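Researcher: I'd like a structural prediction for the single chain below. Treat it as a standalone chain; there are no partners to consider.
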Amino acid sequence: MRVPDPDEQLHTVDVSLRRERLAELFESTFDDLYRYCLARTANRVAAEEAASEAFLAAARTIAAGRGPVDRAWLFVTARNRIVDGWRSAERQRRRFASLVNLRRNVENDSDEADRIGEVVVEVMRQLPERQRAALALRYLDGCTVGEVASELEIEYTAAESLLARGRRNFTTMWKERDV
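Model: Treating it as a single chain, here is the predicted structure.
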């Protein structure tokens, strides 16, 4: 007969308490947090995402035992997610505007447009497979970062990092071609 390890028993109790704490926090805070996010985003989907991401971060923090998570921590985390979303949207808007300007510049020159298209394909082929897949999902298929993460079966933050590396590598290779 196996004798239970006291440390193992403490870990089981500790995990159970962490789950209870997270469940209590969710029950007491989610509705208020969602309304807070909705007031700032004016978008139900964005509010749900920000609130959910805050609770996901809380679950990870609690599971890792990295510190106390309370109502204020959740609101700050949600606010940070919303601000990150705004910044990301602004960066994307600027990228789109520069692509529109590029398109306007080559609109009357189909040979130039074809050449640029060929360079894009060439650069994409040179990217590592996962970066290429992430960029294609995000910018060609129009997937959200969450959808990219789901499709590639990785965590949301890993998808963000993968996309950032892919954009950086794409930009570097693009500049080397002097297009």
